[in-house]
Every structure is written in C-alpha cells, then in structure tokens.
Write a structure and sequence with these properties.
Layout (H helix, E strand, L loop, with lengths): L1 H22 L9 H14 L1 H4 L23 H10 L13 H15 L11 H9 L9 E2 L2 E2 L9 H4 L2 H9 L10 E7 L4 E9 L3 E5 L5 E5 L3 E6 L9 H4 L2 H12 L3 H8 L6
Antiparallel strand pairs: 1-2, 3-4, 3-7, 4-5, 5-6
Helix pairs in contact: 1-11, 2-5, 4-5, 6-10
The structure holds heme C (HEC) (2 copies).
C-alpha cells in the first residue's frame, strides 16, 4: 500500500511538469534566440552557396537541416567541421572566430531540433481553438483520440517534426501526395463511382478510406476504372486562409503535441 502511494506521488511529480509544459509556452531546450539570429546572419552570408537557404537544400553541400541522419551531430563535431573545414571535400574552413562559429552551430541546432524544443512565437491556447474551429483541421486529423482519419494523427507532431517541417506542411504544396494519402476514384463493374484515400494496393486488390471513415476493399479485376489524383488532400494555403498571427498560434499548438515525451516521463525516464 505504502509503495503504491509513494509510486503515485512520484508519478505525479514527474507528470505535472510535463503537462504544464504541454499547456504553456516554455520549451524544453530553448536555444538562446540572440545567438540563433546572429548565427543565421553569418550562415546566410557564407554558407548558402553550398548548403542552401535555411540549410534545407544542399546544392554543392549536404542539407544541414531536415529529417535525415547527420554525419556530425554534436556541437563539438559541428564546430570542428565549420572551423577547420572537412579535408578532402569541398567544405572549406570558415575563417571565422570561434565565438562566431559557435553561434553558427547554435543556428544549425535550431534548424534540427524538433518543434517541441524550438522557441515558438504563437499562443498555444489560441492555436488549439484555431485547430478545431476556424482551421477545421479536426475534420481530417486526430489529436489525442479526437478528430478525422483522412490525414495522419498529429498527437505526436511536435516531438517528431521540426518547426520548418510543420510550417511547410501548412503552406507549401507537396509535389505528390505521400504514400498512404493519395486520393483515388474507382468505378465498379456496376458503374458505381467511389472516391477516397488509397490506403493499400497490390496487383489484385485495392483498399480505400472513404470520407465517411469507412474502409472499402475492391477486387481490381472487378473495377472498370481507377483514377489516381496527383494532389494531396492536405490544403497548403493556410498562410492565406489564416492571419499571420493565427498561423503562428496554430504552429505553437502543433509544436506542443508530444505524447512520446509525456509517456517517457510517466515511465520515469529522466531524459527530457
Ligand atoms: C564550397 C562549398 C561549401 C561552403 C561554402 C560551405 N560548405 Fe559546409 N560542406 C560542404 C560539403 C561538400 C560538405 C560535405 C563534406 C563531406 O562529404 O563530408 C559540407 C559539410 C558540412 C557540415 C557537416 C555536415 C554533416 O552532415 O556532417 C557542416 C556542419 C557544414 N558543412 C557547415 C557549413 C557552414 C556553417 C558553412 C558556412 C560557414 C559551410 N558549411 C560552408 C560544402 C561547403
Ligand atoms: C481535407 C483534409 C485535411 C484538412 C482539412 C487538413 N489536413 Fe493536414 N493533412 C491531410 C492529409 C491527407 C495529410 C497527409 C498528406 C500530406 O502530407 O500532404 C496531411 C498532412 C498534414 C501535416 C503533416 C504531417 C506529417 O507529419 O507528415 C500537418 C502538420 C497537417 N496536415 C496539419 C494540418 C492542420 C494544422 C490543419 C488545419 C489548419 C490541417 N492539416 C487540415 C489532410 C487534411
């Protein structure tokens, strides 16, 4: 009995800060914003020719931000690569003071941290309201068990994605719908037309999710027509549908969605 009580007290102590963080604005890592800004300025003057604007698209060098594995990930490894260059490659020594290189490292960090750990400008509570009301995001997305199934579950978006990924998801059209989210229309042998999201297919069958959340399975041999739509159902014009501050609020709310963090803390994992 005593053990259970102590266990609950400990659990409460660990869970509370996590919940406070999910509800409030304080972020886990909070990089010094000034260093990030200065590092960004230096980066844009000297590194974009090879690594692209905001480190997103490498032209002659690799992208420094985004969802990939990096060869160098610690601050010291980054510092060394930038200060000394990488021998035998195109990567030159920066020719900058160590103090300035440190700021550039901080900036690169800010590009890589997940949204949960990045500084946010918006208001989380207002963003939550926009998510369910004006933005109508809940028609297609689930958060914490509530919402529609057309799009991916966003309950862990802040812990999985970077800030720039989330921003782009809302404002940039993808060249093609990602796997599992392609709209498709089929016409059955009886002439019935059914539209939905393609969830699975092989040479013999095809599974699609209808707007009413029903999963339908079709035998390919019995279909008259299958038409693939090249456009994702995810609207990409929220920078026009929402005011700039509303978009920031919405992003702040998305950045707080982090179930794995909370669960890990509930299990007593000290890692933030
Ligand atoms: C002339 C082109 C060029 C310029 C300018 C340049 N880089 Fe690079 N950089 C590269 C190349 C190429 C690589 C990949 C080297 C390799 O193959 O390991 C690289 C690698 C890196 C890496 C390691 C990436 C990883 O995944 O390990 C970092 C960090 C980096 N550059 C930062 C910078 C910064 C910061 C600047 C500006 C101060 C800069 N680079 C300027 C070409 C360039
Ligand atoms: C008509 C349905 C629909 C609506 C409305 C919608 N989405 Fe989406 N969303 C999708 C689909 C489908 C995807 C997956 C395909 C893609 O990424 O293009 C997606 C992808 C996303 C992603 C990327 C998720 C990831 O990790 O890959 C984010 C973030 C997102 N939506 C947020 C939102 C927000 C916020 C709103 C409201 C402002 C919203 N969506 C409104 C259907 C929708």
């Amino acid at each position: 009995m005593r053990g259970i009580v102590i266990g609950l007290v400990v659990l409460g102590a660990v869970v509370l800060p996590a919940q406070r963080r999910r509800a409030g604005q304080a972020s886990g890592l909070s990089l010094p914003e000034e260093a990030v800004a200065e590092g960004r300025k230096v980066y844009n003057q000297t590194c974009t020719v090879c690594h692209g604007v905001d480190g997103t698209l490498g032209d002659r060098g690799p992208a420094l931000a985004g969802n990939r594995r990096y060869l160098r990930s610690t601050d010291e490894e980054l510092l060394e690569a930038i200060r000394d260059g990488i021998p035998g490659t195109l990567m030159p020594p920066a020719g900058l003071s160590e103090e300035v290189v440190r700021k550039v490292v901080t900036y690169i960090r800010s590009l890589r941290v997940t949204a949960y750990d990045a500084p946010v400008k918006g208001d989380v509570a207002r963003g939550e309201k926009i998510f369910w009301e004006k933005g109508q995001c809940g028609q297609c997305h689930v958060i914490q068990g509530k919402g529609g199934l057309v799009g991916p579950d966003l309950s862990n978006a802040g812990a999985q994605r970077t800030m720039s990924f989330l921003r782009e998801a809302l404002t940039k059209e993808k060249p093609r719908p990602p796997r599992g989210y392609q709209p498709v229309r089929v016409v059955t042998a009886q002439g019935q037309s059914v539209t939905g999201i393609l969830k699975n297919e092989d040479s013999f069958s095809l599974q699609l999710l209808e707007a009413n959340q029903k999963l339908r399975m079709f035998d390919r041999a019995e279909l008259r027509e299958v038409v693939y739509d090249a456009k994702s159902p995810m609207p990409s014009d929220y920078d026009k549908k929402l005011a700039p501050q509303e978009l920031e609020d919405l992003l702040a709310f998305l950045s707080r969605q982090a179930v794995t963090r909370v669960r890990r803390q509930q299990l007593g994992d000290p890692q933030p």
